[in-house]
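Hi Prof. W.,

I finally got the F-box domain-containing protein prediction working! I wasn't sure whether to trim anything, so I left the full sequence exactly as given:
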Amino acid sequence: MDRFLEQVAIEASQMYVTEDGKSPFANTTIEKLPDKVLLNIFSYLSHLEICRMATISRRWRQIAYDSRLWKNVSLRPEISGLHVGSLESLMTLISARFGPSLRYLELPIELITHHVLHELAAKCPNLTHMLLDFQQAMQLHDFSELQAFPAKLRYLCICLSEVIFMEGFMRKIYNFINGLEVLHLVGTYEKTDQEEEEIYEVINVHKLKAATPNLRVINLYGINFIDDSHIDAFSSNCIQLECLAVNFCNKVTGATLKTLFQRSKRLKCLLMNGTSLQSEHVMTVEWDKTILQELDITATDLSSECLIDMLTRIPSLKFLSAGQINGFNDSVLKAWMESGNCKSLLSLDLDASDNLSDEILIKFVTRYGAQLQACILSGMAHITDQLWMTILPILKSAKILVMGCHERLSVNIHVDQLMDAIATNCPKLERLELRWDPENLRFSDKSQKAIDLLRVKCLKLRCMVLSDGRYYELVKANFERADRMTVVRNTTCCRVSPYYMIQNYNDLIFN
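And this is what came out:
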């Protein structure tokens, strides 16, 4: 860490050069830098690292505790946040360190008490984003004396427990959250066993929607009790709704979609990955009268007839994720092309669409590939480097590319020529993922040249994901030698998603 700070200091000193070509700070050490420069350097560190820097000297301690460094704070140590050992310590932090500068705060269950919330309301008037994590709760604190709550919140994320009922707490805060524009309710989808268990409605959505009339973005993620009636409830009161996400809410069937679009005239983004959509409900929607631009129907059981009916009637779709759907076949893609409704398309995700042929994919990309900024054609064993070599010269605007599948193939992937083609044709590339099994990747002693070309040509590349193996180590070492330490990542801990293309992406992020 000290080496990092010294390097930043050197680079900062080189920004100022006198007429004789010498920097007036040529002999300056980091200790001689002005406080405002050190403050700027510290702003690049995590709060855990800032706390470590505070132990070096009295001056560094004073800078480390400057409230301007504490605008966005997580107190959940399991999510790379700080650990606060007691409520008394937190109360001191709120008063002495956070204050009016605090904009964003994450709190775990043990720190969510009426005393803490009162202190935040009194001492942090500019707090606009808050995450309350109740997921690990076995019981709630007593909120009977809760009389104050941060009143300027625009973003609220509540991580729900499976069994702890939230209504006692929510009843106390309804009067303070009518200014909310973004609401996240995060369920326990990723932690739930497959066995059937009794499902509890741990938060009253019908009362919540009445208290939040100004919502633009609603994200209901992986909640096992959310169904079509809850979507209907929000649509009845949130006339400004622009984005609705119900990913992995498997009780949603689409029965109230028609009413949703009739009421929510501003709705542009609908994300329904992993839901139980039924074709007959989806086909009743007046898609041609909507202004929908972004749609995710990944891992649903929609029929080919339904997909054709929907895609040929949505007039200006910019973002489509429709992977893992058996009904998405050549006839669907052909009908969509012939309708002319792909003219606005910028992002296409067809992951694991095994019923699409190489021929129809090449025809589609030939016609619309020049405008695509994200192209996901992964999870299909029949799509190899040969198809990608054919379509890469067309994908000039690509920012996100995902290719390959995890299963072992009977053919080999010549990755050197693939890297050459990507570097030559996709200068705007920001994110790239190759999912092929390392045993299928073939590369030569001249691979370094191809990797160099990719690194030099694709200067905006910030994330390159590869399966663990010899080629991964080779690429990682190449980028690290060029001081691009965080670009190359492993598929075990990273995935490239087209969601970066969604207009409300920043509002949809949650931990």
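Residues 2-13 form the longest helix (12 residues). Does that look reasonable to you?

Thanks,
D.
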